[in-house]
Amino acid sequence: xxxxxxxxxxxxxxxxxxxxxxxxxxxxxxxxxxxxxxxxxxxxxxxxxxxxxxxxxxxxxxxxxxxxxxxxxxxxxxxxxx
Length: 82
Fold this sequence. Notes:
The protein is of the alpha+beta class. The chain has one domain: Ferrous iron transport protein A (FeoA) (SH3 type barrels, Roll). It contains 2 helices and 6 strands, in the order ββαβββαβ. The chain is globular.
């Protein structure tokens, strides 16, 4: 079992950081929408950039660039790579 003290929200990561998705803290419907674009527990990704006016975060996951809303990223718990 993961130690929750090691987990942070995806939205608090910096550009260039890499992590692994561990869990979601939002409801099932929102979780399904996020998983439809390839964001699922166990996947590794890198934060590529923040788009301030649109409040989105672009990540590279499974070789693709995916933009997600900051509001959704607040509910994606990740473990940073050292």
